[in-house]
């Protein structure tokens, strides 16, 4: 079945303060954000009608914009309200929500002080980011050629569109080779993250995860660290070299889209889909679906 292109779907999009028909949410080809990647975005998920960690996402959107030298013309509270409006307008309870803010078409060139800052929020039904069967067995990852940049060369703390250019290239390269995704190293050659998710490893009941000093410290990442500590697990944030992966028994990735997904293979390294990954998958599902967890417990 051929999916409906995203610009031809039905529904409504929150666009600069107003809900507009989905297919009317357009911008000009000379938009600064299109030419110079002067745009920041978020990825959010709604479960049972509630958007998970919504305010944290709205706050991060503001921070990302500030790092790109512009201000979002809506407060965090207004963005929260708009995300909920977009969800309700499309009659969704379980959905993916995408806020994005960008510089408009009022000025063209590297300088962009006169551009208007636009904001849209879209919500749509988007199931598992990875194939459910592959998630059950553990994803197969290759090792990317491009590396996450030195923070002195890019605003790596931001969720900026331009930072994902190399992720798209590596995701395509991985899928062409039969893999689900790619593990990216950083400019120092240390393990960083997958193309759109943070990564964790387990050894002797202890979790190890790279320090997010040149890539996004994900909201899901922080949530899973909290869940692990509630279970009494030790979590060590540290530099991890590729050869260190021989020492680990389990591996999984985390992200709003990926949620908690086990990994069985990264290049020459192999991992079991073990008890820690399964436990944290279950704990995360219970956290985002509290009503279902209570019903199951009862």
What does this protein structure show overall?
With 298 residues, the protein is of the alpha+beta class. It folds into two domains: 6-124, D-amino Acid Aminotransferase, Chain A, domain 1, CATH 3.30.470; 132-290, D-amino Acid Aminotransferase, subunit A, domain 2 (D-amino Acid Aminotransferase, Chain A, domain 2, Alpha-Beta Barrel), CATH 3.20.10. 29% of the residues lie in helices and 27% in strands. It has helices at 32-36, 54-67, 76-89, 132-137, 165-176, 219-230, 275-288, 290-297; strands spanning 12-15, 18-21, 39-41, 44-47, 50-51, 95-103, 117-124, 139-143, 181-185, 191-194, 198-203, 206-210, 234-238, 250-255, 259-266, 269-270. The strands form two sheets. Strands 8, 9, 10, 11, 12, 13, 14, 15 and 16 form a nine-stranded mixed β-sheet that branches. Strands 1, 2, 3, 4, 5, 6 and 7 form a seven-stranded antiparallel β-sheet that branches.
């Amino acid at each position: 079945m051929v999916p409906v292109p995203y610009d031809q779907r039905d529904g409504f999009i929150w666009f600069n303060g107003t809900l507009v028909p989905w297919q009317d949410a357009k911008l000009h080809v000379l938009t600064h954000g299109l030419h110079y990647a002067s745009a920041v975005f978020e990825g959010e998920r709604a479960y049972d009608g509630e958007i998970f960690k919504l305010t944290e996402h709205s706050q991060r959107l503001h921070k990302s914009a500030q790092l790109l030298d512009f201000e979002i013309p809506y407060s965090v509270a207004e963005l929260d309200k708009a995300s909920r409006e977009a969800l309700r307008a499309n009659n969704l309870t379980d959905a993916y929500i995408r806020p994005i803010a960008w510089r408009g078409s009022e000025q063209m060139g590297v300088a962009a002080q006169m551009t208007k800052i636009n904001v849209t929020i879209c919500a749509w039904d988007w199931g598992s980011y990875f194939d459910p069967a592959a998630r059950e067995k553990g994803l197969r990852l290759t090792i990317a050629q491009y590396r996450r940049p030195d923070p002195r060369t890019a605003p790596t703390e931001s969720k900026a569109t331009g930072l994902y250019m190399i992720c798209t290239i590596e995701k395509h390269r991985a899928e062409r080779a039969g893999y689900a995704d790619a593990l990216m190293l950083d400019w120092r050659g240390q393990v960083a993250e997958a193309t759109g998710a943070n990564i964790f490893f387990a050894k002797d009941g202890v979790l190890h995860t790279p320090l997010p000093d040149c890539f996004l410290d994900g909201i899901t990442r922080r949530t899973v660290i909290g869940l692990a500590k509630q279970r009494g697990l030790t979590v060590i944030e540290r530099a991890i070299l590729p050869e260190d992966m021989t020492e680990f028994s389990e591996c999984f990735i985390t992200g709003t889209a990926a949620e908690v997904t086990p990994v069985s293979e990264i290049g020459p390294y192999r991992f079991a889909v073990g008890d820690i990954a399964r436990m944290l998958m279950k704990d995360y599902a219970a956290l985002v679906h509290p009503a279902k967890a209570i019903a199951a417990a009862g």
